[in-house]
Amino acid sequence: MDLKTNFIGLKMQNPTVLASGILGTNFPLMQRVFEEGGAGAITMKSIGPEERNGHANPSVIEWEHGLLNAVGLPSPGFQNMEKEWKQLSKRNFPLIASIYGASVEEFATVAKDVALHKPDAIEVNISCPNTKEHGQIFGTSKEVSAKVIKAVKKEIGEISLIAKLTPQAPNIAVIAAGCEKAGADAICAVNTVAGMCIDIDARKPILHNKFGGLSGPAIKPVGIKCVYQIYESVKIPILGMGGISNGRDAIEYIQAGATALGIGSATHYQGIEVFKKICDEMQKWMKENNVKSLKEIRGVAHA
Ligand SMILES: Cc1cc2nc3c(=O)[nH]c(=O)nc-3n(C[C@H](O)[C@H](O)[C@H](O)COP(=O)(O)O)c2cc1C
């Protein structure tokens, strides 16, 4: 069963993609995830306008149904990435860079620099707060999302643009359609869902930042619903993610309409071999159900 996937021009050995933020911007680690782990493409941690340490610990906790993180977008800053980019220029895997900013102008500045280093695609993380709009998350407004996508598109030329959306948008399908119109080549859904855990014995929030983003199995139904709705509102391909831990989860996202599949938290629970494992399980399901290619089942849940 062939899982080879062409996602916005990225020629992938299979549809799995390492999600952003999971293994940083470290080249040897990314190469291992591709070569030993079997991922089809690698997304870097989001790169921001300046050096940032992120939030104090505890910043990631594991609870019964997933992770809760408030790492706070730690970033070396786009100006301090020369060594990483030099190593990455020798890569043998499809690379998706990820960027964030606190204003439309900052997104454009970071995009311009990152594009010089020629990643295979640039993912625009519009799930972060806009400091000029009282901290409102960019991706919850159709107009603001479109402004960011337009500004980034102008700076990155021929490089493919993926808009990464927040499930906290009141209507994610409308945001996705706005991003497509503004020039996005693909949609990535979803980022984490806001949440909080309290240690009842200590009577205090567990995360130093109090609030964080949920990921892992708890958010799979959220991601599936978002991908399903987006599939009906855009023509561009979808990179689906949120709680994918096994082959059946992956097939579920494909049936909702995804072309590529992001895997993040599952690498924490199962190690980098999880990409190979998920592909093997997908192929087993396809064989048992007489499905020859993923095209046959993409979006079938809409029929
Ligand atoms: C520790 C951690 C850090 C993350 N950092 C980023 C990031 O820098 N940029 C981004 O777009 N998403 C980030 N994410 C979100 C993931 O890329 C992904 O959208 C989310 O975790 C859902 O997928 P999963 O359930 O497979 O983990 C982060 C997630 C985790 C758990």
Question: How would you characterize this protein structure?
Answer:
The longest helix has 15 residues, at 142-156. Strand 1 (5-7) and strand 2 (10-12) form a beta hairpin. This protein has 303 residues and is α/β, with parallel strands linked by helices. The strands form five sheets. It has an eight-stranded parallel barrel, surrounded by seven helices. Helix 7 (247-256) crosses helix 9 (274-288). It is 32% helix and 22% strand. It has helices at residues 27-35, 82-88, 104-116, 142-156, 172-182, 220-231, 247-256, 265-270, 274-288; strands at 5-7, 10-12, 16-18, 41-47, 60-63, 66-69, 95-99, 121-125, 129-130, 136-137, 160-164, 186-189, 193-196, 198-199, 204-205, 211-215, 238-241, 260-263. The chain is built from nine helices and 18 strands. The two termini are 24 Å apart. It has one domain: TIM Barrel, CATH 3.20.20.70. It binds flavin mononucleotide. Flavin mononucleotide (FMN) binds at residues 19-21, 45-46, 60, 67, 69, 71, 73, 98, 125, 164, 191-192, 215-216, 219, 241-244, 262-266. Residues 19-21, 45-46, 60, 67, 69, 71, 73, 98, 125, 164, 191-192, 215-216, 219, 241-244, 262-266 line the site of flavin mononucleotide.
Helix content: 25-40%
The radius of gyration over CA amounts to 18 Å
Structural class by SSE content: alpha/beta
Strand order of the largest sheet: 3-4-7-8-11-12-17-18
CATH topology: TIM Barrel
CATH architecture: Alpha-Beta Barrel
Reported for the largest beta sheet, the result is: 8 strands, parallel, barrel
Distance between the termini: 24 Å
Q: How many helical stretches?
A: 9
The rough form would be described as: globular
Strand fraction: 15-25%
Tell me the number of strands: 18
Q: What do the pLDDT scores average to?
A: 94
Small molecules (ligands, ions, cofactors) in the structure = flavin mononucleotide
